[in-house]
Write a structure and sequence with these properties.
The protein is an alpha/beta fold. The protein contains five helices and six strands; from the N terminus they run E-H-E-H-E-H-E-H-E-E-H. 44% of the residues lie in helices and 21% in strands. Strands 1, 2, 3, 4, 5 and 6 form a six-stranded parallel sheet that branches. The mean pLDDT is 95.
Length: 158
């Protein structure tokens, strides 16, 4: 993994602008900012993120809507494009997942977790699943997820 004075946190996401996943992404980003840690955040739509972004990262957040009981195609595309080029170079990368679910979100989470095993990443937080529209409590949970990863990276515990 890259060395740096400030930890690098990569946030990749899919979904429609203005949609529920987008609202979750914004809450996660606010949580990272509110943590007050010296973190360099790179937040990118999954279709724009690539190998260099993943190699840059010390931690990874993945945000996706649930599509037909699965992750968004853009997230799967990111995995397809990056897996072989980074194989063996991102082992133990701490990651966390958040899902905007229309159903129960478990299919999206389990598919991401299976792929993460292939990358040999380390899950550092329980998956966050929000069913339906976001409540204020859901936004707070998203912010807390961002704060947790930012603080963990800054303190060197992740």
């Amino acid at each position: 993994m890259p060395s740096s004075t400030r930890p690098h946190l990569l946030l990749i996401y899919a979904g429609h602008a203005g949609g529920r996943t987008h609202a979750m992404v914004e809450a996660v980003k606010q949580g990272i900012a509110d943590a007050g840690e010296e973190i360099e955040l790179r937040a990118l739509p999954a279709l724009e993120a690539g190998v260099d972004d993943l190699l840059w990262a010390h931690g990874l957040l993945i945000g996706t809507p649930e599509h037909f009981g699965y992750m968004a195609g853009a997230i799967k595309d990111f995995f397809d494009r990056t897996f072989y080029p980074v194989q063996g170079r991102v082992d133990a990368l701490p990651y966390a997942v958040f899902v905007s679910a229309g159903n129960d979100g478990t299919g999206a989470v389990s598919s991401i977790e299976r792929i993460a095993l292939g990358y040999r990443w380390k899950q550092c937080a329980e998956p966050l699943i929000v069913k339906g529209d976001l409540s204020e409590t859901d936004r707070e949970r998203c912010a807390e997820l961002g704060q947790t990863l930012a603080a963990g990276l800054a303190l060197g515990v992740l």
